[in-house]
Write a structure and sequence with these properties.
- The chain is α+β, with helices and mostly antiparallel strands and 379 residues long.
- Helix content is 40%, strand content 24%.
- It contains eleven helices and 18 strands.
- Strands 1-5-6-9-14-15-16-18 form an eight-stranded mixed sheet.
- The longest helix has 30 residues, at 310-339.
- The protein binds adenosine monophosphate (AMP) and magnesium ion (MG).
- Adenosine monophosphate binds at residues 144-146, 148, 152, 198, 200-201, 270, 274, 286-288, 290, 314, 317-318, 322.
């Protein structure tokens, strides 16, 4: 028997979601809204934000009314999704909650917080994930570094008062950053020289892996796991065709660069738009170059990695963002040669180019409204 589950945490619209179209149309009918959507309409809306969808569908309505209506649609779609998910839906939520409670360094009771406080901790799963983080750190020449925590804290990107630390402050903090200050021995992880572990660049992808495993164990053959920027695809669509994943435009995340056709893989994007702040006309984003302690300036504004493993895809998207185009392509070759791991990339440069690796030539469909120059990289 084929089970089908669509798990969506951030309101992104996916095609193949006939039940979702029905839910929306039911709400429209109930509310007396003069509109019924087709699946094609849904495709057109894919990648847009909820307020944009609301204004596209009900142009004459007051903002609040149309947003309420769309909100209600999103709530309505959860009911059949939960039903389709059956007992799986709470199980997936539980998987995510458990991981969050272990990996979130901002949660004082997490295992990572215990490690950061005590300098050492024993946990098989955390050791395994830290080991992957370290491996990717080494393969990327330190571009990915899960010990950037003190530098992240100084910038305080997620806090109420983000700020630009001075060069002196950053160089003092960088003394506590470095892969060599992190060690994994069996199930024991240890930190030295006042280092702190931050798995923010890999945890979401790993969570995607965990959810995908839970779903697969329960016989689900077809699912989208959307954790916001990190998308896991289990199998293909229920009708056997590939999923279509919209890749956001880093200059305006309410638009999209194009659509990627894929199945049974992860599609993970790191971009400058995700988190950050602006001061004196300069935008500071949350992906740090561990060599400088400052937001990476590699000429890239967004990197999408397509890779079969969620944790790897996530960490590699962060690493490639720091490395820039040439470094990313070199890392891709290293992964193929040393790890027998094939990844595909969509790189967006700060001068308006979208370059994608040859493996995506047939799979990446540039957006028609795009203002970018699209080029396949023959490699
Ligand atoms: P992502 O959005 O996956 O690119 O991850 C960004 C998050 O990873 C940040 O919020 C930090 O917690 C962490 N981070 C930032 N810079 C780095 C880096 N160079 N290496 C590893 N983790 C990083
Ligand atoms: Mg990442």
């Amino acid at each position: 028997m084929k089970k089908y589950l669509l798990f969506d945490l951030d309101g992104t619209l996916w095609d193949a979601s006939i039940p979702i179209v029905q839910c929306w149309n039911d709400v429209f009918r109930r509310k007396g809204a003069d509109k019924q959507l087709s699946l094609d309409d849904m495709h057109r809306l894919m990648g847009k934000t909820l307020p944009e969808i609301a204004s596209a569908l009900f142009p004459g309505w007051p903002d609040a009314a149309r947003q309420n209506l769309i909100q209600e649609c999103c709530e309505a779609e959860l009911v059949p999704l939960k039903r389709q998910g059956g007992t799986l839906y709470p199980l997936v939520e539980e998987t995510l909650r458990t991981l969050d409670a272990k990996l979130d360094r901002h949660d004082e009771t997490s295992t990572v917080s215990a490690l950061n406080r005590d300098g050492t901790v024993e946990d098989a799963e955390l050791a395994q994930l830290t080991d992957i983080a370290q491996t990717i750190g080494a393969l990327s020449g330190g571009a990915f570094d899960p010990t950037v925590a003190p530098v992240m804290d100084a910038w305080d990107f997620t806090g109420d008062a983000p700020r630009v630390p001075s060069d002196e402050e950053l160089s003092a903090l960088l003394a506590h950053v470095g892969l060599e200050k992190l060690s994994v021995d069996g199930n024991t992880i240890a930190l030295s020289d006042g280092a702190q572990l931050d798995l923010g660049g890999i945890a979401k992808g790993y969570a995607g892996d965990a959810v995908r495993t839970v779903l697969a164990e329960f016989g689900v053959t077809s699912a989208v796991i959307d954790l916001g920027g990190d998308v896991g695809l289990l199998g293909a669509k229920p009708d056997g065709s590939d999923w279509r994943v919209a890749v956001k435009d880093p200059a305006d995340p309410s638009k999209f660069l194009g659509v990627l056709t894929a199945a049974d893989t992860f599609v993970v994007t790191s971009g400058i738009y995700e988190r950050g702040f602006e001061e004196n006309g300069v935008r500071y984003h949350h992906i740090i170059d561990p060599k400088t302690g400052k937001p990476a300036e590699s000429g890239l504004v967004s990197v999408t990695v397509v890779c079969g493993d969620g944790a790897w895809a996530d960490a590699l998207s962060t690493a490639c963002f720091v490395l820039g185009e040439a470094g990313s392509l070199a890392l891709r070759d290293t992964l193929a040669a040393e790890k027998n791991l094939r990844i595909e990339l969509i790189l967006v440069t700060d001068d308006g180019h979208v370059r994608y690796t040859a493996g995506l030539a047939e799979r990446f469909e540039p957006s028609e409204e795009g203002t970018y120059v699209y080029e396949a990289i023959i490699a």
